[in-house]
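During the reporting period the student researcher (J.K.) took over the structure-prediction task from the postdoctoral fellow and processed the backlog of single-chain submissions. One of the processed entries is reproduced below for the supervisory committee.
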Amino acid sequence: MVNSSKPNLLFLCTGNSCRSQMAEGWARQLHGDKFNVYSAGTVAQGLNPLAVRAMAELGVSIAHHHSKTVADLADVMFDYVVTVCDHARQRCPLFPGQTRLIHQPFDDPPQLAASAGTELEALGHYLHVCDQIRNWVTHLPSSLT
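J.K. obtained the following structure tokens:
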């Protein structure tokens, strides 16, 4: 059951496999008392295993998350929608009501890791983006007021 006294916050990405999932994980951990937090994609591409591993290494489990689209959350009225990639911003659907749209792009970990020679090297790119997202999400409530 959604607590209607808290604003609904959606992180939107292309595939809901990595960046939006990371942002959801950080927002739930850092600000779950202030927001009902969701993530979705313009399409559902499945949860990225290296995103799960990177978040776990930083102390946040997103292993129970699943990839979904905005249509899967059609019954939720969002107060805030944060697009975390340019592609999602360009294809962001219209949201009814007084939804506030925020664009905060982050590098795409799979793209950064494409030239990595080892899985450990690839994981480093995911950890870097996780840190960037955590730093931004940490200050999110103050930027909304």
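The committee noted the following: The chain is about 40% helix and 15% strand.
J.K. will present the remaining backlog at the next meeting.
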